[in-house]
Amino acid sequence: MTTIVQGVLAERRHQLILRALRSGGPAAVTDLSEQLGVSPATVRRDLVKLEEEGLLTRVHGGAVVDEGDQPFAEVAEVRVPEKDAIAVQAASMIQDGESVLLDIGTTAYRLARQLHGRRITVITSNLVVYEELADDEDIELVLLGGMVRREYRSLVGFLTEDNLRQLHADWLFLGTSGVRPGGQVMDTTVVEVPVKRAMIRAGERVVLLADRAKFPGTGMAKVCGPEELDVVVTDAPVDAATRSALEEAGVRVVVA
Prior knowledge:
single chain; alpha/beta; three-stranded antiparallel sheet; DeoR/GlpR family DNA-binding transcription regulator; DNA-binding; ArsR-like_HTH; transcription regulation
């Protein structure tokens, strides 16, 4: 009985912590401790648990909830060496003459930079990928239609999904906001999810590009389960629970 009560109390604290962060922005451990009437040590344990579940991000002395996507320009400056390592590994999988579908996001953009001079076809809804490859005459470049998300430099909506239904690619390189311990691929923005799912249907082989911050990362909307992936390329060893779930689904994990 005591264990059940403790579990209920912890769940209630977690709800109150998330509510406080969503309504008031970043908060210090000491402030949360006073609001909840528990010790700072208890709050720290709660924050660790919530971060493991991808529901918040711990920062020095406290925590913050990530609400939605950051603008592309901001994300593009984060963890560049790690993304480049992933991009180099991913580019090595592609053979000349193949077709490649590139998702939105900054890691897909870093991959595009590795593809110059390759005799391949690149299909994308990522406007930064398009701009990167537009002048490369070796690459056949297909830009999907759709509504422009200016801040995140992507195309979304039913036009994008209709375009994808008419296409097939040898490879899909998929981005993500987070990967749960069960291997589920998540995204922070609901409007992007139908496009990602349409990309998965259009791709012969699906490769997830995910740096260490994406385990578990963030995201409220499920894109797909591990059974829909073929490969995960990351820059660091994946935690045991997630790796086990991926391998049980037949997914190959590649550390760049």
